[in-house]
Design goal:
Layout: H1 2-16, E1 18-20, E2 25-29, E3 35-41, E4 45-51, E5 54-66, E6 71-72, E7 81-91, E8 99-112, E9 115-122, E10 125-147, E11 154-159, E12 172-175, E13 185-192, E14 198-204, E15 212-216, E16 221-225, E17 229-234, E18 241-246, E19 251-258, E20 261-267, H2 278-282, E21 297-301, H3 320-332, E22 337-340, H4 361-370, E23 374-380, H5 381-386, H6 388-398, E24 402-406, H7 413-428, E25 432-435, H8 444-447, E26 451-454, H9 470-474, H10 481-484, E27 496-497, E28 511-512, H11 515-524, E29 529-532, H12 536-541, H13 543-551, E30 558-565, E31 569-576, E32 579-586, E33 591-596, E34 606-613, E35 624-631, E36 636-641, E37 646-653
Parallel strand pairs: 21-22, 21-29, 22-23, 23-24, 24-25, 25-26, 27-28
Antiparallel strand pairs: 1-2, 2-3, 3-4, 4-5, 5-6, 5-10, 7-8, 8-9, 9-10, 10-16, 10-19, 10-20, 11-12, 11-13, 13-14, 13-15, 14-20, 15-16, 17-18, 30-31, 31-32, 32-37, 33-36, 34-35, 34-37
Helix pairs in contact: 3-4
């Protein structure tokens, strides 16, 4: 058996970058040879990673422990090992790239006759997962997942309050001895490994299984998983289902299945992180077929601005007249959608089939349709799930375009299964989803493209009740959280504040930083369903800025990071058809950023429309300037950014205008 395994690997080595020394020590390199994974299948299953010849991950154990006493990765009888080289094009609707190349070397190692570990090694990272073919069901007690980074890594980590949360936390930069052991680390975790590279720990294809947190150990980090809920209760305010007690195992699942991918993204420069595709590439493929009915877009939204209509002639709130005003605004500025957030059904009653008397939903749907505006309905996840088939059939039949699903706030196995169920049934009725109160995306937007967006981010809603450092967060999470998938950050604030001038105001909220910073968010943040979070009254008072924001597409063909440094600044360029859109933002440090427009087509003339900070934006952050200039692929733009500032640029071919 040892000879056969070595022979198989030797025959595949040229095409798949694999080799073996004694049948239990295996080596897989990336297509360009820069990243190497060494697997040991001796007494225990471990792996180590080097990059550019430098150690990145020291020997780290992996495995799975089952309730019947089996432990994958221990006491193995390794069998056949096989390698292959894969190079393919992935088409990715509504993703940051319309398509991208997926190239890797893969090793499949049979641990026994019923289980396999699979490694994929890319030029920009590596991943592994387990596969089993057990009979019937099995119970997973725990998973062994170590991450023992080499040298003295520096972490940029978000710490959770516990195993039930909506993944809405800011980042801390620290070394290993400063990692908190009392709070789990949320994925993705960013790791600065010096010359070996910038690394993210991610996961993909999370199905019928809990998401992974991390916690420090003496040698590095290990995976931590929420156990399956045993009993739950409904919170009285919204009928949100919460966990009371848990079992002592993390999953009860089919014995024949694949498990989630554990991913190490590894690149040379921060700017390569926001456009890394491994999470999407490793997710299960499209399960819903035709996607032509799915329409990304922007939406008017009433919740953040607290129904903030001025001089409306009626009392704004959860009522038909208010929603008509938001629909009118959406139609005037070409927004595709309006959201009816919490209150259109009685949250405490917990019945999505009963609309409150103050809202004439059928009238609103007809009114919106006449103005070419679609409607999304908000719902608590488990409340919608209680009548899922009935609600999807009924509201789809009325003409509703989708649901904004909220308050999942967990990623244990039952919560993950709930999300898959919502996505699948919604797709049957051609309903789109915007998932709020949700764990990080794990490639589910590939599997179910009707999921346009995921919150799972410390978004603009947080300033309604707290005073965080939002500009710094805004130039941090695109390098970390956004790598997992799109975000529903809900930008667009028109009350803009300096660092000293910011004040918490729930009913009349403001943003930190400049107006141009808010405009830049529509380019920098991946968001196929983007909210305009502020009041139509404020937007209509400044139509030039509003029309500029409304004109920025949310779906693109190609995304590049022109410049960026995690926690400091970012400049993003997106091609949408023949047009390009560029967005840049900084933390509280004022900057001058120069960058070339070399991504434009050569020998073609363009006009750039630029919304930027004004000369007084450092003290009057709501001030901005809009200018136009002729540009081409040889042009270099020099942009001045105020503290918490930004810019947004629309670049259009002159021969197409």
């Amino acid at each position: 058996m040892k000879y056969l395994r070595s022979l198989i690997i030797a025959l595949a080595a040229v095409s798949a970058g694999c080799s073996s020394s004694d049948g239990t020590a295996l080596r897989v390199s990336s297509p360009d040879g820069s990243l190497v994974v060494e697997i040991s299948a001796a007494d225990s299953l471990t792996y180590a990673v080097t990059r550019h010849g430098l150690p990145l991950l020291d020997r780290s154990a992996i495995g799975m422990r089952f309730a019947d006493g089996r432990t994958l990765g221990r006491d193995m009888r390794p069998g056949r090992a096989a390698c292959r080289r894969v190079a393919r094009t992935v088409r990715a609707p509504f993703y940051r790239q319309a398509e991208f190349e997926d190239e890797f070397n893969e090793l499949r190692l049979a641990l026994d006759d019923r289980s396999t570990v699979v490694f994929r090694v890319y030029d920009d990272g590596c991943a592994y997962r387990f596969e089993t073919s057990f009979d019937g069901e099995c119970t997973v007690e725990n998973e062994i997942a170590e991450f023992n980074f080499s040298g003295r890594p520096v972490y940029t980590a978000a710490f959770s309050d516990g195993m039930c949360n909506a993944f809405q936390f800011c980042y801390d930069r620290c070394q290993a001895d400063s990692l908190r052991s009392d709070k789990p680390i949320i994925l993705p975790l960013a790791v600065d490994c010096g010359p070996a590279g910038r690394v993210l720990v991610c996961e993909s294809d999370l199905e019928s299984y809990p998401g992974m947190f991390l916690t420090p150990t003496a040698d590095g980090l290990r995976g931590l998983f929420a156990c399956v809920p045993d009993s739950c209760y409904n919170h009285s305010r919204r009928c949100q289902r919460k966990v009371a007690t848990r079992h002592d195992f993390i999953a009860r699942t089919a014995g024949a299945r694949t498990y989630p991918w554990r991913i190490l993204v590894a690149v040379d420069d921060d700017a390569q992180l926001p456009v890394n595709n491994l999470v999407y590439a490793l997710a299960s493929e499209n399960r819903i077929g035709d996607t032509s009915w799915i329409k990304p877009g922007k939406s008017a939204w009433e919740w953040w601005n607290d129904y903030g209509l001025a001089d409306a002639g009626f009392k704004p709130g959860v009522n038909t007249a208010t929603y008509k005003a938001y629909i009118d605004f959406a139609a005037e500025y070409g927004l595709e959608y309006a959201v009816l957030d919490e209150g259109w059904y009685d949250p405490a009653g917990g019945d999505v089939m009963t609309v409150i008397p103050d809202v004439d939903l059928e009238e609103l749907i007809g009114y919106a349709s006449s103005k070419n505006v679609g409607l999304f309905l908000w719902a608590v996840a488990n409340v919608l799930d209680d009548k899922l088939e009935e609600a999807c059939e009924y509201y789809s039949g009325l003409g509703i375009k989708g649901f904004k699903v909220d308050f999942i706030d967990r990623d244990d196995q039952l919560a993950v299964e709930l999300v898959y169920r919502l996505a699948s049934v919604a797709a049957e009725y051609r309903l789109q989803l915007d998932l709020h109160g949700i764990y990080k995306p794990t490639g589910l937007n590939r599997t179910y493209p009707n999921i346009l967006n995921f919150e799972g981010v410390f978004g603009l809603e947080e300033v309604k009740w707290s005073n965080p450092d939002m500009p710094s967060y805004d130039v941090t999470f695109p390098f970390i959280r956004m790598v997992q998938g799109p975000v529903d950050y809900t930008p667009g604030a028109y009350r803009n504040a300096t660092r000293d001038g910011f004040a918490i105001d729930y009913r009349r909220p403001m943003s930190q930083g400049t107006r141009a910073h808010q405009a830049a968010a529509y380019v920098v943040f991946d968001s196929p369903l983007a909210m305009l979070c502020d009041s139509p009254s404020l937007y209509e008072a400044e139509p030039d800025c509003t029309r500029f924001i409304a004109s920025i597409p949310v779906a693109c063909d190609r995304t590049e990071i022109v410049a960026g440094r995690m926690g400091e600044y970012i400049v993003t360029a997106r091609r949408c058809g023949e047009e390009w859109y560029v967005g840049g933002m900084t933390d509280w440090t004022p900057r001058e950023l120069g960058f070339a427009l070399s991504f434009l087509d050569e020998d073609r003339a363009y006009t750039a429309e630029i919304l930027a900070d004004s000369d007084t934006s450092d003290v009057e952050p709501q001030r901005y300037v809009i200018s136009r200039r002729a540009v081409d692929s040889r042009t270099t733009l020099d942009m001045r950014l105020a503290p918490g500032g930004g810019f947004a640029i629309a670049i259009r071919p002159r021969d197409a205008m």
